[in-house]
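## tool: complex_structure
## caller: assistant
## args:
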Amino acid sequence: MAVTFGRVLDNKTSTRIEREVASAIKRQGSDWKGNTFYTLLLVMLVLTLFILAVLIYGVVADGWDILTGWLPSFLGGTLGSIKAFEGQTLGVQQGLAGSFWIAVFVALLSFPIGIASAIYLEEYAPKNRFSNFIELNIRNLAGVPSVVYGLLGLFLFVEGIPSITGGRTAASAGLTLAILVLPIVIITSQEALRAVPATLKEGSYGVGATRWETVRRQALPYAAPGILTGTLLSMSRAIGEAAPLILVGAITGFLGSNPSIVDPRQLDDAFTAMPILITGWTQNPMPEFRVAAAAAIVVLLVFVLLLNAATIYLRYHFEKKREA
Amino acid sequence: MKKGHPKMKSVSSRPWLFALIAVASLVAAACGDDNDSATTSTTTPTTGQGTSDASSDASSSATRISGSVNISGSSTVEPISVRVAELFENVESGVNVTVDGPGTGDGFRLFCAGETDISGASRQIKDAEAETCAENNINWIELRVGIDGIAVMTNNDNPLDCVSFADLYALVGPESQGINNWSDGQDLANELGSSTNLPDMSLDVFGPGEESGTFDSFIELVLEDIADERGQDAITRVDYSANANDNVIIQGITSNSGSLGWVGFAYAVNADNVKLLEVDGGEVNGGEVDGGDGCVPANPDTIASGEYPISRSLYIYVNADNAADNSALQAYVDYYVSEGLDVAVPDVGYVPLTDDSKAQTLNNWNDRRIG
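## result:
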């Protein structure tokens, strides 16, 4: 009788394993299956990066005139006509402002609600048919097309409570997108909490910690990097959405005011956002607007990239803290 | 595993409640200082002077009007209204103009619900839309602001140079359902009196969707008469690639050798690698199409003169009651029908109205001609 991996094996099995190990040691690197798999993985990775490179090259090349010519005034410019393009007063500031406030709403609403829901579902809720039903529905909600959320936003915030949101405003858009990403935040946070080793929590209870202390001192710190990644990725999703905003009434043509990006007074005004601005410009008859659209795409990409970079940095920070 | 620990109940929904209350107070705080009181009026603007020196007059008295003007409607008219808004902003910087362009039909839906002050339209208001407006007590002033042709396009690979209305009816009309080769439309086109030789090429049709005024205009101008003669519904075939973005339609035409499509002229004239077909808009006589004017190419001259058979007018519809109350709206439309028609329309690449038509538009506005 031999003991392998904690299992008691009979003689027949243990001889077979001995034989396999012996042959594996003698084989000396002729692992063709493994090599093929490795090559295949590498090809897939290169293919993905290649598609990304082509996309980025395409938009940068199209937007080159603006990106190298008048990027600063483009960043501070407004929606406008072909003459605004020629006069270099066309730009993305109103779009950046709209997207910024959408991000603020997502951060202030979906993150606390989503993470709290995830903690409740993972750590507190009894496992019964009702909680299963809720989890199933959250998963379904995450798969609902974004236009549907646009309709919901139109019904709830634009037409439902115009006295609070002001109707077709940045506030309505922010609320709509906050709801859109809520299920994604819940699911990713739940996954992160589920990855906390049970031994850690059991140990905590074992030394007499309360449930609150266990969640606060063990589960949350351990899950923090995962929660953070999930939430900030959902933020990127919210910033890139166009379809719901069209329904909520984002403006494509012209906005009279151009307040600074962080000015909260624009919340109850007509608004636009980066993806809307881009779709609007691709619909203009003048070919110059395709240059503007490409440049705006680059700006949006950089915006999202910065956000993701922040995620990676924070994740790294939390992971180091966790190990310490 | 995590459920291995006892004392499970009683904590229940409290975290939820907490989060909800916290969030509710946040929202309330964020949106507290609401109510953009549509600050209107201070000085009554001098209405109806429609000369080009209006801007210099007004710029001396700049920023005396405040208020907001809310514009939606046709994406084809949108660039004109945007340009007018830009120019107007230099004159009256206190007025907050918003321009959107979801489509003529969507625009009228908002306009007749009283949500917008002005609706751009690339066709005239439909009876059903006018009824909705009437139900909601919305009186409107129709102002013609420009002319636009609808360009019929194909790929450069196509040997064809000219199509007649009969050919178009045979290729995209209600009876063309299912046809996927140009030559399959030949019999019907001949029957309607066309003498065009349709090529033996696969047929891929691209066009705007139903929300578009360009879609409606195309039916009204090209298909309706023939369809009526033949006792058919005036619609297009259903099996074509519809897109709200004219540039996507053009892209489709560029990349398919047997393509056929229609978009507003302003879009087509700026497109590379597509062939603008000449159009023969012969009159329909008892199901037969006579020679008409022959093949006419689409260009600004033929469109302005109406020689090109698929020309339509572009309009703005102004909410008459809002115009009476809102001096900002008055000033904007004043500016639109004077400077706008002279400067903004050609600025954005559209075909301007003839002087007579401009005068007509100005009169209609000055008289506040309703309906």
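## assistant note: Chain A touches chain B through 54 residues (CB under 8 Å). The mean pLDDT of chain A is 88. Handing back to user.
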